[in-house]
Amino acid sequence: MYVRPELVSSSQLTIVKGGIVMSNAVADSGQKSHADEVKRLERREGWKRRLPILPALIFTIVVTQIPFLFTLFYSLTDWRLDKPEPREFIGVENYGSLPGDKFFRDAAWISVQMTVMAVLLSLIVGTLLAILLDRKFFGQGFVRTLLITPFLVMPVVAGFMWKTQMFGATFGILNWILNLFGFESIEFATKYPLASVVVVLVWQWSPFMMLIVLAGLQGQDTSVLEAARVDGATSFGIFRQITFPQLRPFLELGTLLGAIYLIQVYDHIEVIVGGQPGAKNLPFYIAQRSIGGGNRFGLASSYSIIVVIASIIIANIGLRVLSGLLEDDS
Amino acid sequence: MAMFTRAPKAEPILGQNRVVHHLLSLLTWIIGLLFFFPLFWLTLNGFKEESVANGDPVLFFDPTLDRFSEVTEANAGLLSFAEAFGNSFWIVLASTALAMVLAVPAAYALAIRPMRKWRDVLFFFISTKFLPIVGIIMPIWIIARDLNLLGTRTVLIVLYTAMNLPLAVWMLRSFFAEVPKELIEAAQIDGCSLMGQIRQVILPIVAPGLAATALLCVIFAWNEFFFAVQLNPTGASTIPVWVNSQQKFQGQFLAGLSAASVLATLPVVIAGWFAQKRMIRGLAMGAIK
């Protein structure tokens, strides 16, 4: 490491001050100022290291954290965009009305069901697909590409495609198959709105889970597997005792990333069921009651805060998982 | 024993038996084709006449490109394909570039010359992804309205940058962490300047990771619908909003909507096919490594 010019000049200064006969006191003060210098330089070095991250940090805070404070403020007011009267501070009144709000309760319950079902099912399907793909066979790469594609599809397109061409009662393939076997057509998206949305979500997110699990399977320590096999372990035993524990961080990562995105689903609901009841989750309901035409900014903001608090709880659990993943790293 | 002289081969979990192996391969093929089938069917419908698409499912028909030319035709007063494509193109390009410009130095500060408490900072970035968009959409709408930004490309560029930044920082950190410290030290000893180190040592190693990260940003920005429809329902709107507008309330539109969907999906699907392996390595291995 090179010596900074400031450091050189300041220590030279000490020597000049001390003169030829350097008394103890002067030497002490020289040491002291030297220690100060080191501290100052350390601080400078700290800032030098921090500097590159500042633009990203400031941008993120301005665009995501500050608006959140606004939402918090709105939630304590009776603000309606469609009424001219000035907004008034009403404390936690909005929050008090939440438990009695049936629509809010419904939306919250649907959010929970939708997220849990979509995450769990995609994880299960994705893991099974990964295990099937983790073998050498003809066309392995091609089949993997086929399986990945749903994840790349625009949610709006995925929703519309399933709604009309798969679920649809008039020209949906599923109903065509039902009719083939002599069953009546079912308008899936109307009759089973929640299940319909979950099916499309699982179709899109299983490939994502599959890829994460596949990365885990292919990163396994092969010598351990070989040793277990030499010792006469069965395939299932190896999976349960060696593969699964090694896969755990990947399964946790998949759950975490899946939950982050799936808790916020909006596009699929908009396209598949639109304004109909039965599959409106909280994000959809909040948008509907505020900027989507409801104009109840104060009330809707209190819903948002509840969603954020619920997400923070999930996030805390998730981040603990992540910190476990980063533990060995330094 | 010969067994130990060759490198141990990864043994699959399933399929010791030959017959079982072939059956499982067949099963994997069938599942793969089933997963892809809706997209295959969508593409097929895009080449049909409306009357054919709105009838019983048929596999063989006279393919036509008419639907593609119909949906891309500009109609006065409606969002046209060319307009939406232009908006999407510039918004995606600018937001991805901005996200990368912000994320690369951040990843450097997290991985190569880690600052103090870098873990906390990384967690902060990731935790912003847990903040549901609905938690901030109202103030953003109000601020955008007051700044006269509703219906402009600018508002979506800023929001998509913020949306992709945590993911970009997360992925890039893992790619940067793979640069051997010894290489950087060797370059320092050789008197290589900081810019020189970045250009000659770090960039060549992380370039594939940069490409994969940028691509993931492109995919998420290209597919984003919520912000686009809430903030830009009319002006400067993007491809997802255009596709959604192809659902008509009267008449037959299935084939036309299918053609529109194919046009909207194709760029990102093709890009994803090429980058699949690397994208996942960045997402998954980055967390573990």
Secondary structure layout:
The complex is a heterodimer of chains A (about 325) and B (about 290).
Chain A: H1 5-18, H2 24-50, H3 54-74, H4 93-97, H5 102-133, H6 140-152, H7 155-167, H8 173-180, H9 188-191, H10 193-218, H11 222-230, H12 235-262, H13 267-272, H14 282-289, H15 297-326
Helix pairs in contact in A: 1-2, 3-15, 5-10, 5-12, 5-14, 6-10, 7-10, 10-12, 11-12, 12-15, 14-15
Chain B: H1 2-5, H2 18-46, H3 50-53, H4 66-72, H5 81-111, H6 118-128, H7 134-146, H8 153-177, H9 181-189, H10 194-223, H11 226-231, H12 239-245, H13 254-288
How would you describe this protein?
The complex is a heterodimer of chains A (330) and B (289). With 330 residues, chain A is an all-alpha fold. Chain A has two domains: 5-13 and 27-74, no CATH class; 103-326, MetI-like fold (Orthogonal Bundle), CATH 1.10.3720.10. In chain A, 74% of the residues lie in helices and 0% in strands. Chain A contains 15 helices and no strands. The longest helix of chain A has 32 residues, at 102-133. Chain B is mainly α. Chain B has two domains: 13-40; 70-288, MetI-like fold. Helices cover 73% and strands 0% of the residues of chain B. In chain B, helix 5 packs parallel to helix 8 (153-177) and helix 8 packs across helix 10. The longest helix of chain B is centred in the C-terminal third of the chain and has 35 residues, at 254-288. The two termini of chain B are 34 Å apart. At the A-B interface, helix 2, helix 3, helix 5, helix 6 and helix 7 of A face helix 2, helix 5, helix 6, helix 7 and helix 8 of B.
